[in-house]
UniProtKB/TrEMBL annotation:
Residues 88-202 form the TonB-dependent receptor plug domain. Residues 1-34 form the signal peptide. Pfam families: Plug, TonB_dep_Rec_b-barrel. Residues 39-73 are annotated as: Disordered. This is TonB-dependent receptor. InterPro entries: Beta-barrel_TonB, Beta-barrel_TonB_sf, Plug_dom, Plug_dom_sf, TonB-dep_rcpt-like, TonB_rcpt_CS. SUPFAM superfamilies: Porins. Keywords: Cell outer membrane, Membrane, Receptor, Signal, TonB box, Transmembrane, Transmembrane beta strand, Transport. Belongs to the TonB-dependent receptor family. It comes from Croceibacterium mercuriale. The keyword Cytoplasm does not apply.
Length: 989
């Protein structure tokens, strides 16, 4: 069977191929990374390929709008909902074509897209590996402009996808990937066009739903350290029947990435990585002695616990315990600041135990059938079934400082008992890493079932062509989280309080003994199996989440009449959406009242009936919630003028009215335009918009968590009271409101058609940002009459304290403002220096001028996070590509770079003897530089035949280590893994 992928087999073979031969140097020419406008030839920022302008080539863009149906052959780029051609969308949109995606040779398309400079703070398998309870381990989700994944709308063929987390964000790992024809990244607000969450922008995956033929991909990879072994198998097939009226497409893929496990205690990372040295920010606790409050130091160790135990208070302080249970003199290092010391014995450090990258296994299938029941009208259905499994180790052991051990504990070494008697003490302070308990593991499984049915096409009214699109989606996501090898705190506390009973060690508490308590020897690595089974039960915490999303959407687009400068075009439509979630947890975490104990989790009077504080980590709760959305939108394009003297311009505007069942009606709008000036190839564009993000299911209906605050200050009575803290959702939340403005230009002169340049300035301001408050802040804001709505969140009127409560919940209080600019440039040189083929040079950059967050609390100073490399918004972030391509092979070199920054811009750097008084909002520090990073990737392809291509790629060629950081490392910016080799073969018939 011939591969008909829009009539261009060789282009697919070259572009859909990439990295080979373990150290070869280069990828495909990145032609498909471009700034584009709908329905037109290559605009500024779109390089041409060896056979002409790639972005306007039939196989790249001119196929189908928004997911496969025919609509007059027009192209819909995600910055607009107008299908009709003849105008340029004012919102900057970067497009990654199939060739660019293939050239990056990644087992997950998420990694390729996340490299774009405008994407800041995206998650992935390197992020959240330290987490036990977040539920976001291994979740691949995008964040544009650094404002978070919850403010970036991710679509599949222009349609919403059911969330893979209660925050509502989908997991890109669950998307079909081999059939991706292109990815549109809208760098600007798009709520008027697409609705809630499109504050930072939109990432839209466009599938090739008219693919014909068979194609596949086999990829393998491994790091230079011999871990994170990767295997990717992909296969897709498509055909047309019944005179090209029936279209069938299907794909299946399997991806297994072993991840990078945790290292050993101390500073030893996995498999010989040596960049972690215990670099820490130490708080001296002194604010006004002329020296900095915070100091940055290397090889910092805690004085609060040791690997197998450490006496931390009393006359025996400094006595450590080795693996055999023998006491020794612990080396604290010097100097010490509180519980932190420089140097000394670092064997008990637990941080090196976190996974550097979660293991992930993906299985994904996608099928689509479309039938043109009459010319220009197609009915279609799609099914996307996918499963993703991830696992990570949050940390080594389960450190417990601040313990009190009785000297009569029979497990206490005799030498220490003797010293207790000599010192005249009956107990001592103790801390341990609990190395004998083993390490916790978190396993997460997400299963997605997504069904779409629709009808789309075109019709005429008079002499005017219109398009329509009616579809419904039903998506279900199941997320199962299982935590294993983790302690129950109350059982641990009872098990280490040991006495001698009838000559045998036993738990001191008779009630605990009756409930099965087994004495635990925490002195060395000598715990009995019975004690381990009691403290670390076989059945750990779990969470079972079911989310559903139902959408019905109808939209139209057309040009009802012509004006003096061209056709007037409109798009309009409506949508209904329902979001639901239900979460169930284990009874030890959720609470016995909500989930009665069962055979796997028997009743235990030692445990807290509320569930709070039982598990060392991973306290999940039961909850549920639902809301619905009704909305309508209108978008219009008005041609302003079209003449040789003053050029061509259009005005584009849109409005959307949305009715949320929880918060009522809110409006979003945008207005912008483009002007093709008389200056050859010089286009000016700009857009300003009002965008919204509605509160998500988690913020509205968070599963409740209850804790006790015994000495809570009541400002109304000026006394301390007992308070019950209830962490809950807030159904009174309203949507966040944003103002997003972008102004820029593109330049692509006719005299230099292979030169492309674009520049866009952006300013994004978000108010009523949903953020949490501490219980003391909630009460104080009411007491000071600063935020009266917090007054309904507590009641301190009970003098006895039994009825006092504070509901800790999110409020619309904070704000975010960020501004900066994006630059993109490319140059293509056919037959450079007389050589065959073409050379493409390309660069993208984002500069963040400021990123200011304001908590909204009285007396606080807004913080500018631009250039803070412990966050997600460095001053500069670049992606540079140089590629050379011929008919038989291609080479690529890619550089990824971000600039030097700080740990935090709130710090005041000063030297001893010259520091001002340190404050909570302007603390002093002796060093505040967190260097950036520069990574080089190389790749190559070789076309063995027209159908078969070998490829290879090396990422992080020079094995660049992360910079020393007091937060261990920031995987949102830095590469934790090191050099990675990948090779594979692609085929298409």
């Amino acid at each position: 069977m011939l591969h008909k992928d829009h009539g261009h087999r060789r282009s697919l073979m070259q572009g859909a191929s990439l990295p080979v031969l373990t150290a070869l140097a280069c990828l495909l020419p990145l032609p498909a990374l471009a700034q584009v406008s709908p329905a037109q030839t290559p605009p500024a920022g779109v390089p041409a390929g060896p056979d002409g302008p790639l972005q306007s080539a039939p196989e790249e863009l001119s196929q189908t709008p928004q997911g496969g149906g025919r609509a007059g052959g027009e192209i819909v780029v995600t910055g607009t909902r107008i299908v009709t051609g003849g105008f340029d969308a004012p919102t900057p949109t970067t497009v990654l074509g199939a060739e660019q995606i293939a050239a990056n040779a990644q087992p997950n398309i998420f990694t390729t897209i996340a490299q774009l400079p405008s994407l800041q703070g995206s998650s992935g398998t390197q992020v959240n590996t330290f987490s036990t309870s977040s539920g976001q381990q291994g979740l691949s989700s995008f964040s544009l402009r650094g404002v978070g994944a919850i403010r970036t709308l991710t679509l599949l063929d222009g349609q919403r996808v059911v969330g893979a987390n209660v925050t509502g964000v989908p997991d890109v790992s669950l998307f079909p990937q081999l059939l991706v024809q292109r990815v549109d990244v809208v760098n600007g607000g798009a709520s008027a066009s697409y609705g809630s969450d499109a504050v930072g922008g939109v990432v839209n995956f466009i599938l090739d739903n008219r693919f014909e033929g068979i194609k596949g991909n086999v990829l393998g990879g491994i790091t230079t350290y011999g871990d994170d072994e990767q295997i990717l198998l992909q296969l897709a097939a498509g055909t047309s029947l019944l005179d090209d009226r029936l279209h069938l497409v299907t794909s299946i893929e399997y991806d297994d990435e072993a991840g990078v496990p945790g290292g050993n205690y101390g500073f030893e990372l996995a498999n010989g990585r040596d960049w972690f040295t215990g670099y820490s920010m130490i708080n001296r606790g002194v604010l006004n002695d002329g020296s900095p409050q915070y100091i940055m130091r290397d090889r910092v160790q805690t004085a609060g616990y040791g690997k197998y135990g450490l006496i931390t208070s009393g006359p025996l302080t400094g006595t450590g315990i080795d693996a055999e249970g023998n006491p020794y003199q612990f080396q604290f290092g010097s100097p010490c600041y509180g519980s932190l010391c420089l140097g000394g014995n670092v064997a008990g450090n637990v941080d090196a135990g976190r996974s550097l990258r979660s293991a992930i296994e993906r299985l994904n299938s996608y099928s689509r059938v479309g039938f043109e029941f009459s010319p220009g009208h197609e009915i279609y259905a799609t099914v996307n079934l996918a499963r993703v499994r991830t696992s990570n180790q949050p940390v080594n052991g389960a450190n417990r400082p601040g313990l009190t051990i009785q000297c009569d504990n029979p497990f206490v070494p005799q030498a220490i008992k003797t010293r207790c008697a000599t010192a005249g003490i009956t107990n001592f302070g103790f801390g341990t890493s609990n190395a004998s308990l083993g390490n916790t593991r978190v396993d997460t499984e997400r299963r997605q079932y997504r069904y779409v049915a629709g009808v789309k096409g075109e019709f005429g009214i008079g002499e005017r062509d219109w398009t329509y699109d009616l579809y419904g989606t039903h998506g279900i996501n199941y997320t199962d989280i299982d935590v294993s090898n983790i302690m129950l705190n109350p059982r641990f506390n009872q098990a280490i309080d040991v006495i001698s009973l009838n000559g045998q060690p036993a738990c001191r508490s008779a009630a605990a003994r009756a409930a099965g308590c087994q004495p635990l020897n925490i002195f060395g690595d000598a715990a009995s199996q019975a004690a381990l089974d009691y403290v670390v039960p076989a059945n750990g915490p779990y969470q079972r989440t079911r989310q559903t999303q139902d959408v019905v959407s109808l939209s139209f687009s057309g040009s009802p009449f012509d004006l003096w400068a061209g056709p007037f075009s409109v798009a309009f439509g409506g949508e209904y959406r329902r979001e639901f979630y239900r979460v169930e947890a284990d009874p030890y975490g959720a609470g016995f009242a909500n989930t009665p104990p069962n055979a796997d989790y028997p009743a235990d009077p030692v445990l807290n009936a509320s569930g709070n504080g039982n598990w060392y980590a991973g306290t999940y709760k039961n909850g549920r919630g639902v809301y619905n959305v009704k909305e309508a939108f209108l978008e219009a394009n008005l041609p302003l003028f079209d003449s040789t003297a003053i050029g061509q311009a259009n005005l584009n505007g849109a409005a959307r009215v949305t009715d949320y069942s929880t918060s009522g009606v809110v409006w979003a709008w945008k207005v912008g335009g483009t002007w093709d000036t008389p200056l050859d190839g010089f286009r000016i564009r700009g857009v300003t918009s009002r965008d919204v993000r509605a509160p998500n299911l988690s913020e509205l209906f968070a599963a409740p968590v209850t804790t006790t605050l015994p000495n809570f200050f009541d400002p109304f009575t000026n006394t301390n009271v007992l308070v019950i803290q209830n962490s809950i959702g807030n159904t009174a939340l309203t949507p966040e409101l944003a103002r997003n403005t972008t102004v820029g230009f593109t330049y692509n002169p006719a005299f230099a058609p292979n030169v492309n340049l674009s520049f866009d300035y952006y300013n994004l301001s978000i108010k009523d940002v949903i953020s949490g408050l501490a219980p003391a802040d909630i009460v104080q804001l009411c007491f000071q009459n600063v935020l009266p709505e917090t007054c309904a969140a507590f009641d301190l009127s009970n003098s006895g304290g039994s009825g006092n409560f504070v509901n800790v919940q999110a409020f619309n209080l904070a704000s975010i403002e960020t501004r900066g600019f994006d630059i993109e440039a490319s140059l293509r040189l056919p037959q450079p220096l007389g050589l065959p083929g073409s050379l493409t040079l390309r660069g993208l950059a984002t500069h963040v001028i400021e990123y200011i967050t304001d908590t909204g609390l009285p007396g606080t100073i807004p913080v500018d996070g631009a250039g803070s490399n412990s966050g997600a918004t460095p001053d500069w972030k670049w992606l540079m590509i140089q590629s050379y391509e011929t008919d038989t092979f291609s080479l690529l070199v890619q550089e990824r770079w971000f600039s030097d920054g700080t740990y935090g811009n709130q710090y005041v750097v000063c030297a001893p003897g010259s520091c001002p008084v340190s404050t909570s909002q302007r603390p002093t520090i002796d060093y505040n530089t967190l260097k950036g990073a520069f990574y080089v990737d190389i790749g190559a392809t070789v076309n063995l035949t027209d159908e078969v291509t070998l490829y290879g790629k090396v990422d992080n060629l020079f094995d660049r280590d992360p910079e020393p950081s007091p937060i261990f490392n920031n995987p949102a910016l830095y590469d934790q893994i090191g050099r990675v080799y990948r090779a594979g073969v692609r085929f298409a018939f």
